[in-house]
Amino acid sequence: MTSTDDTTRQTLVRRGFALEYATLGWNVIGIVVLAVAAMSARSVALAGFGLDSLIEIGASTVVIWELSGSGEDRQRRALKLIGVGFALLAVYLLVQSTWVLASGFRPHHSPLGIGWTAVTAAVMFALAAGKARTGTALDNPVLKTEGRVTLIDGLLAAAVLLGLLLNSLAGLWWADPAAGYVLVYYALREVREIFFGEH
Predict the structure, then answer these.
(1) Rounded to whole angstroms, what are the CA distances from 8 to 2, 4, 76, 141, 180?
(2) Which of 37, 161, 168, 190 lies at a C-alpha separation of 20 to 30 Å from 118?
(3) What region does 146 belong to: left with phi over 0, alpha with psi -120 to 50, or beta?
(4) Which among 174, 3, 5, 17 has a CA at the least distance from the CA of 105?
(5) For the whole model, what pTM was predicted?
(6) What is the separation, in whole angstroms, between the first and last Cα of the chain?
(7) Residue 185 and residue 187: Cα distance in Å, rounded?
(8) How does it sit in the membrane (predicted)?
């Protein structure tokens, strides 16, 4: 490897760290905001999205750990840790959303939740694009996978936002737990990709 290649790689690794730290910071703040919004609105979708933010924090921490070292064993372990987090999220949301629908529990409106999920969707899409480019340039499967986690975080924010808006504007209370099922689908898809996909 030439010194130019080495310099380029170091620049990309620094960018990877910066993207992960930005994701960490956003999600740490998000857990607090989502906890307040979920409790005040009694929203399963917001609670689930808060747990997704917690998993994203774990995933970013795993990538930071992986970028600090090297080796395929380290990468495989990092990917499995991210996969386990998604599996736990899917189980929780499946049980919680089913219980809410079966009991007819109606969540309240959440202006805070609507505002936060709208901004979060835009931020996560931007971070995901940066991680995808950087992970591809580094040929780093863990950073690329975590970039998909961040993209899913943006998609989930959009799904939760839609559920909150339908509940708030049209009184469709079931849209909130239905958004929880959307999160279950994406979480299970990532679990399958991590454990059975090609890495």
Answers:
(1) 10, 6, 25, 18, 41
(2) 190
(3) alpha
(4) 174
(5) 0.82
(6) 24
(7) 6
(8) Multi-pass membrane protein
Identify the sign of the CA torsion 23, 29, 32, 38. negative
Cα distance between residue 153 and residue 87, in whole Å: 15
Domain locations along the chain: 3-196
Give Cβ neighbours of residue 89 (< 8 Å, ≥ 6 apart): 48, 51, 52, 55, 183, 187
Phi, psi (5° rounding) for residue 105?
Answer: -65, 130
56-88: pLDDT as tens digits:
888 888 888 878 876 677 777 877 888 887 888
Structure tokens, 80 = 């499995």
Residue 174, phi then psi, degrees to nearest 5: -70, -15
Residue range 103-159, pLDDT digits in tens? 877 888 899 999 999 999 999 999 999 999 999 999 888 888 888 888 888 988 998
Q: Which amino acid is at 61?
A: T
Q: Which CATH number is correct for 3-196, 2.60.40, 1.20.1510, 1.10.260, 1.10.287?
A: 1.20.1510
Residue type at position 20? E
- Tell me the C-alpha distance between 21 and 16, whole Å: 9
Rounded-to-integer distance, Cα 124 and Cα 122, Å: 6
pLDDT digits (tens, 9 = 90+) for 175-197: 888 887 887 888 888 889 888 87
